[in-house]
Amino acid sequence: MTNTALAKQELRRKLLATRRQLTRMQALSAAEAVATRLRSLPEWQQASRIGGYRAVGGEIPLTPLCDAAAGTGKTFYYPKIQRLGAGLMWYLPLGGKPLLANRFGIPEPNLPVYQAIRPSRLDIILLPLVAFDLAGHRLGMGGGYYDRLLAGFPASARPLTVGLAHEFQAVDTLPVARWDHPLDWVITPQRCHDFRAE
């Protein structure tokens, strides 16, 4: 394992341990504050197709955001890993079909691929993360699914990318690989970090 990979692994370990110590009330309070900040962005107000996620392991839950968006013309789509190394597609869960946990324990839509929409049709993609730096780079869980997703977009055609995090997940710098793409925004309960001008 390279020094960079070891550094990322250690940072993940520390921040995930901190995140797992949050109480349910702390997580819900953070989610409410993040939802309030995100809803104030003009890009959010104009968006109709949102790529979401199901929070696990202390990630910022989307429940307050989904509740506030009900009846506003916004539709939430959820990602599914198509197959190992193939990337993510987004689905609109319909008809009360339950989400099923994938091999990582993350709930996914249990729908056939022909019901998916391509990520390029989304207006905004909300991303969970383990850490982010002051240039908008994201450290995820290490599977590389979002990295491959973002690398597949020309810069001019990419949906707005918004990471949702706790402020303690901010670090000065992260090791950056050639395939890493900075996020447009990271929203925390305390701040809206805008990286588009970086």
Written account of the structure:
With 198 residues, this protein is α/β, with parallel strands linked by helices. It has a domain at 26-125 and 147-153: Rossmann fold (3-Layer(aba) Sandwich). It has helices at 3-20, 24-39, 42-46, 63-69, 145-151; strands spanning 49-51, 75-81, 88-91, 99-101, 107-109, 124-128, 131-133, 138-139, 160-164, 170-171, 185-187, 192-194. The strands form three sheets. It has a seven-stranded mixed sheet. Strands 8-7-10 form a three-stranded mixed sheet, with helices on one face. The two termini are 31 Å apart. The relative contact order is 0.18.
Task: Give the structure's gist in a few sentences.
This protein is α/β, with parallel strands linked by helices and 198 residues long.
Give helix % range.
25-40%
Taking the alpha carbons of the first and last residues, their distance comes to 31 Å
CATH topology of the domain at 26-125 and 147-153: Rossmann fold
Number of strands: 12
Mean pLDDT: 87
Low-confidence stretches: none
Outline, from the CA principal axes? Answer: globular
Q: What is the CATH C-level name of the domain at 26-125 and 147-153?
A: Alpha Beta
Task: Kindly provide the radius of gyration, computed on alpha-carbon positions and rounded to a whole number of angstroms.
Answer: 16 Å
Largest sheet: 7 strands, mixed
Sequence of secondary-structure elements: HHHEHEEEEEEEHEEEE
CATH architecture assignment of the domain at 26-125 and 147-153: 3-Layer(aba) Sandwich
Helices and strands: which structural class?
alpha/beta
In DSSP terms (H or I, runs of 4 or more residues), the helix count works out at 5
Looking at CATH, the homologous superfamily of the domain at 26-125 and 147-153 is NagB/RpiA/CoA transferase-like
Question: How is the largest sheet built, in terms of strand order?
Answer: 3-2-1-6-9-11-12
> What is the beta-strand fraction?
15-25%
